[in-house]
Amino acid sequence: MIRDWLRAFWLNRLTPRDAITLTQRNVYIMPTRPGWAMALTLLVLLIASINYQLNLGYVLTFLLAGSALVGMHVCHATLRGLTLKLKPCEPVFLGSNATVSVLLSSESRNIRYGIGVAVWRSDRWNFANVPASGTATVHVSFLPPQRGLHPLPLLTAQTRYPLGTFRVWNLWRPAATVLVYPHPEDHPPPLPPGRPSAGAAVAVHHEGAGEFDGVRAYRRGDPLKTVVWKKAAKSDTLVSRDTQQVQRVELWLDLAQTSVPAGTAAPLERRLSRLCAWVLMADLQKLHYGLRLGDLEIPPGSGDTHTRTCLQALALY
Q1: Predicted local confidence at residue 262, as pLDDT
Q2: Residue 136 contacts residue 90 (beta carbons within 8 Å)
Q3: Which of 91-95, 130-134, 206-210 has the lowest mean pLDDT?
Q4: Closest CA to 290 of 260, 262, 248, 261
Q5: What pLDDT is attached to residue 91?
Q6: Taking Cα atoms as reference points, which of 35, 67, 162 lies closest to residue 110?
Q7: Contact residues for 147 (Cβ-Cβ < 8 A; gap 6+)
Q8: Nearest 5°: CA angle at 296, between 300 and 246?
Q9: Do the Cβ atoms of 22 and 170 come closer than 8 Å?
């Protein structure tokens, strides 16, 4: 209990930031298990050398101790002075891993070997070697628990270079967030029917019938792109689309009119999941659609920007 409280108190003191430079104030060092085993071995060698007056034993003991001491300084210097910077995080769908890209920058003239980055208290490490006066990119991932805007988890960087007897690490609290969209329904029903409205003259295609409304007999000089070739193949008569008689069909995706089976767990999340799938379907079919979420109404539109706006509204609802 006290240990958890002390850990929480220490972690809350970390200032959120998207870039951090590692110094002596925020870099920590401790022996690893092989390091403790080596220390125990050196103690045994020293006691045996004293008891039996073994000069070669003294040489071996102090040679190994000196190597461990030099390795400690090299290990600490490998991480000290390194700059870590976050790259913008792309939105993800619920159930998918969010990828965090960390840029490692070094101004040292020496190569920094074996720099690992991971989510704190996770065993999935990604390592990179940072070249002299250069940069390297490391990607780590985590699974967001639910949709919405989430802060990035605690990150940690470490190295055990060169001997593996010491572990030097740092804890980093990022200030950035990641947007998590709802999980698209796996097998959604077809899109709801569109509603005709007075607007610009466009051709409306009914997917079920495979034909166009508002057709007339072909007139000399009509552009070939207005010819309905499917009707011409069936009746051997050329017909053209009459764009003056066609109305625009607006597709509205409304949360209030989206139903799920009774007794479904988390009905709101299931409805948002279906709307998410419909938004992706409408975007794939290049349809003109709008979104209603309670008091929020996104006017009909199309394109990547409109799709991202709708998905963001679903994520934050």
Answers
A1: 63
A2: no
A3: 206-210
A4: 248
A5: 94
A6: 162
A7: 94, 180, 181, 182, 183, 269, 272, 314, 315
A8: 20
A9: yes
How many Cα neighbours within 13 Å face the side chain of 308?
Answer: 7
Contacts of 233 (CB under 8 A, 6+ apart): none
Q: Return d(Cα 193, Cα 195) in angstroms, integer.
A: 7
Phi, psi at 131, each rounded to 5°: -70, 165
pTM, whole model, 2 decimals? 0.75
Rg of the Cα atoms in the chain: 32
Q: How many residues are listed for the chain in this entry?
A: 317
Q: Which residues contact 243 (CB under 8 A, 6 or more apart)?
A: 201, 202, 203, 214, 226
* Amino acid in the structure at residue 21: T
Each residue of 125-147: pLDDT tens digit? 999 999 999 999 999 999 999 99
How high does pLDDT run on average in the chain?
85
Estimate the share of the chain in helix, then strand, then coil, as percent rounded to the nearest 5: 30, 30, 40
Cα 179 from chain centroid (whole Å): 8
∠ CA 42-45-50, rounded to 5°: 125
Q: Is the pLDDT higher at 256 or at 7?
A: 256
Burial of 145 (0-12, 13-18, 19+ CB in 10 A): exposed
Element spanning 116, H or E? strand 112-119
Respond yes or no on whether the N-terminal peptide bond of residue 190 is cis (omega within 30° of 0): no
Model pLDDT for residues 176-188, shown as the tens digit of each residue: 999 999 999 988 8
Tokens of 283: 């975007």
pLDDT at 213: 47
DSSP 169: E
- Per-residue pLDDT at 212: 42
Averaged over 66-90, what is the pLDDT? 93
Show the domains of the chain with their CATH numbers: 2-181 (2.60.40.10), 182-196+249-317 (no CATH), 200-246 (no CATH)
